[in-house]
Design goal:
Number of helices: 8
CATH architecture of the largest domain: 3-Layer(aba) Sandwich
Distance between the termini: 58 Å
CATH topology of the largest domain: Rossmann fold
Strand content: 15-25%
CATH superfamily of the largest domain: Response regulator
Strand order of the largest sheet: 2-1-3-4-5
Radius of gyration: 21 Å
Number of strands: 13
Largest sheet: 5 strands, parallel
Structural class: alpha/beta
Number of domains: 2
Order of helices and strands: EHEHEHEHEHEEEEHEHHEEE
Length: 250
């Protein structure tokens, strides 16, 4: 028996930006059949005109467009704190996908893509954004300030320097620093992989899910270097991870 995904709110508006009229029509028609409201634009300039007059919940953005390309348009959208974005590109290499994700895209699909896969990705991105907003509304405010202390350790969020209990500097990769910052700003709370991805990376791809476990493993080894008996990051079965020690500022 085929599982039926619940329909999204029909008020959910998707903007499809692609220079190919056939693709715009196909994607628009398919999404409308599944309960979405849609609008289309054939280039970045037309997209901006639409954004000035309407609000959209998500943008499907083509990379390879004449004139201004999708990556340039994506960069501009990030400056404006726009809606979540799914990139479509005929160039589907890992490097292009990673570049798009690192620039702020919420997901990236190679063309031609199955409309059903695009639909699934849209649902996932929208639900993730809803979870993120719900978490932000119900969670206590994270620590603010430049320097935090925990279990004898000290991390400076401005200089990105981590000092162990012996005041020795411990080198962290960019990913390890982002992850540790997510933990120290939300101590003694169970954080799911999705939440860690949202907090630490700002956007999520399914491909990064296992990477979180790898980064946590590396971070644990570095934090355990001076005290093998101290459990700072606890695995909570079937839920996620929790940063165990209390955290103080100053």
């Amino acid at each position: 028996m085929t599982a039926i995904l619940p329909a999204m709110d029909p008020a959910t508006q998707i903007l499809i930006v692609d220079d190919d009229e056939g693709i715009r029509g196909l994607v628009s028609s398919f999404l409308e059949k599944h309960g979405f409201g849609t609008d289309t634009a054939e280039n970045a300039e037309q997209m901006r005109i639409k954004l000035r007059t309407r609000t959209y919940d998500l943008i499907v953005l083509d990379v390879m467009m004449p004139g201004e390309d999708g990556l340039s348009a994506l960069r501009d959208l990030q400056k404006r704190d726009g809606p979540p974005i799914i990139m479509l590109s005929a160039v589907g290499t890992d490097i292009d996908r990673i570049v798009g994700l690192e620039m702020g895209a919420d997901d990236y699909l190679a063309k031609p893509c199955n409309p059903r896969e695009l639909l699934a990705r849209i649902r996932t991105v929208l639900r993730r954004r809803m979870r993120e907003h719900a978490t932000a509304q119900t969670s206590p405010e994270p620590f603010s300030g430049g320097r935090l202390r925990f279990a004898g350790w000290q991390i400076d969020l401005v200089s990105r320097a981590l000092h162990d209990p012996n005041d020795e500097v411990v080198t962290l990769s960019d990913g390890e620093f982002r992850l540790l910052r997510a933990f120290v700003e939300h101590p003694r709370r169970v954080l799911t992989r999705d939440q860690l991805l949202d907090i630490a990376r700002g956007h999520e791809s399914e491909h990064y899910d296992r990477a979180i476990d790898v980064q946590i493993s590396r971070l644990r080894r570095k934090l355990a270097a001076t005290d093998q008996n101290s459990e700072l990051i606890r695995t909570v079965r079937n839920e996620g991870y929790m940063f165990v020690p209390s955290v103080t500022s100053g």
